């Protein structure tokens, strides 16, 4: 597990995508897994990286998401317990390449 995780939760997908884009451009962080649909239009994304990068990413993500929608929650956990990995979203497996006939 990385040194820190950051969670951004918004109401609506547009705000979350805008926030995620800003987070990935602002700092050296990686998305921990696919976007999670919490229900009632609430969606969240989790990023991982070192503590300073995650803090910077969350700050940028909140600002960008607020510009187009509603931020419900944003949080950084520095040095999370190893048990936290069990509840984090898992990265999506790559789909097999499609063969095209010629």
UniProtKB/TrEMBL annotation:
Domain of life, per UniProt, equals: Bacteria
Q: Could you tell me which InterPro entries the record lists for this protein?
A: BMC_dom (IPR000249), BMC_shell (IPR050575), CcmK-like_sf (IPR037233), CcmK/CsoS1_BMC (IPR044872)
Q: Which UniProt keywords apply?
A: Bacterial microcompartment
Write down the CDD domains for this protein, in alphabetical order: BMC_CcmK_like (cd07045)
- What Pfam family is a match for this entry? BMC
Q: Where in the cell is it found?
A: Bacterial microcompartment
Family that this chain belongs to: Belongs to the bacterial microcompartments protein family.
Q: What protein name does the entry list?
A: BMC domain-containing protein
Organism annotation:
Pelagicoccus mobilis
